[in-house]
């Protein structure tokens, strides 16, 4: 088996679609080696247990025989049942085993140089070799063992009759007839037929026990009969126990029994046990067909096994079993590819699903409709519009008329594309209408509106809405929310955006549709883009009067709208309201986006640069801006963020020193531009609180690595703006790709001496 597996593994084609899971997949050779080792250990343990039991029984028999002369004679009423026939049988088998072993040793000890003749067995007057004598002894042992079992059953049946009893079950009356041979195939067949007629597991156990008492040894068909009863009475999990008993008894198992055990194990939801039976089939060299592999693949893809759960783990196990099928030389049928594609789709491994489909098509087999639709849906999740259209065309060429879900999947691909393909979406929609076989639904129009919204084409979104109304479909709240969102896309340039959104909002009442928190959030967001703070406050108040609780997103967009409208004080009022309500509703705890938004609102529409310039014009002193009430408010908000765990306390960063140079580094790499401004204000306050002798030899502010997005450059400019306003000398430079602001120790000392106690 090991040699065959190695050869198959070396020559079998490797599935590229399962390459991701291949690293964690055990090769069939190693798996079968471990399996073989496990079976060898199990057989060795079984042989050891049997040898120990046989020796104990032989000793018991010898002691009983040696003491029989001194023992009192049995009473006249004693029956053969008083003697343990099992002990007698074991002792007899042990004696014959010793005799066979003596012949085998003698056979091996014979001189190989002695001429034994050239006659085959049966020629020349019945001459036999040593090996044939061993076979003869073994045959005699089997005959005697059968005779003992038959005598055992006869003795027990005679005992039952002597005591005035009879068959416990009417189905086994024939076992008590005169001259019945309990070891015959006909008797065993009758017993199996009786077992199949049982209607409960209790009845099965009673019959099997009575069969054993009568000396009938169960064979494979007996175990199969019990397993069929387990299936009929709705207890498939008991069939797995019956299979284990069959394996422990050492009965030869056919492929039909293996298949039945796997079927019932899967019916009971015992996938691990089904795979264990499959391993036994491989060990016994029983061929596994593609249909059984498909059944196991489906079970592994649909069910969790063990502690590792979830679609990702199910995908890994499915890939392993798929690779095992390839290694066994079994050509995967279309259903196997479909299961693997579906498992990858559920695990959101859309690229793997696409690669598996490509391998499937390369085999020359036409996929099923379900496979086509699953792959198109997987491509739509990844925004692969050209590939999805190609598969769509292939499905049509295969004679499969596209259904509504296929068209909707193509529209979803246009929405999820890196650059939304709104023109392609409307072309697909027009083809759907022209086909005449498929009618668009609400989801179809919703996807069209989303494609237009993501492309920044609100006019196309309203065109889709108009066609939806013409189709006679009911207008839902989600559709109107999409349209309101579309009206606010160009609100910065379009002054009528707020009015258009309010018209849709007012139309909801006429259509009998009640707005929700998403409706108000979209409307207030449009007000933020248009810098309309008054309308934003009015909508917020209407929302609360209608009994709709605002969430974190609504508070964030409201604060943003007030900040853009240069209403920083009003923004602070709603920020405080949000903090107060978060005491009873933890869903309203300000997040990092909330803090960034309130920072922008307090600084004003122009940001830090505009705030510094405005303060300098009003006071004539730009340096005093870092001591202003506005900056003090920003530092207070930042302190709240530190308490909430949103930001790092800069005091701890200032206390850290380089062990060699004594320098200190402040990391602002993870902050946004506005957050870097406020963090620099806080840094200056913490610096002014240090004593001169505690100042570091140098201060470095790390703004991040230069990138195409320019985040580090924006942070660097924000930090420079604040330091210039504070009139502290600094230098900027690049260390590799990192942007650094450096403040020498002497410049920090002068600034601290000048600003100590002024914050």
- The structural class is mainly alpha
Shape: elongated
Quaternary organisation of the protein chains: single chain
CATH hierarchy, class of one domain? Alpha Beta
Q: How much is the radius of gyration in Å? A: 43 Å
What's the story with the biggest beta sheet? 4 strands, mixed
Q: Determine the mean pLDDT.
A: 79
Q: How much helix, percentage-wise, in residues?
A: 55-70%
The CATH topology label of one domain is Translation Initiation Factor IF3
| Cα end-to-end separation | 83 Å
Instruction: Report the β-strand fraction as a percent range.
Output: under 5%
According to DSSP, the number of beta strands is 4
Output the number of helix runs.
34
The low-pLDDT segments are 1-14, 20-40, 49-100, 106-128, 162-167
Report what the structure shows.
This is PROP1-like PPR domain-containing protein. Residues 1-57 are annotated as: Disordered. Residues 1-10 have a biased composition (Polar residues). The protein is mainly alpha-helical and 759 residues long. The chain has a domain at 641-755: Translation Initiation Factor IF3 (2-Layer Sandwich), CATH 3.30.110.140. The chain is 64% helix and 3% strand. It is built from 34 helices and four strands. The protein has helices at residues 2-11, 19-22, 28-66, 85-109, 130-162, 185-196, 201-213, 220-232, 236-248, 255-267, 271-283, 290-302, 311-327, 334-346, 350-362, 369-381, 385-397, 404-416, 422-435, 442-454, 458-470, 477-487, 497-511, 517-529, 533-545, 552-564, 568-581, 592-603, 607-619, 629-643, 650-654, 673-688, 711-725, 745-755; strands spanning 664-667, 698-705, 731-735, 738-744. A four-stranded mixed β-sheet has the order 1-2-4-3. A hairpin with a 2-residue loop joins strand 3 and strand 4 (738-744). The longest helix is centred in the first third of the chain and has 39 residues, at 28-66. Residues 1-14, 20-40, 49-100, 106-128 and 162-167 have low confidence and may be disordered.
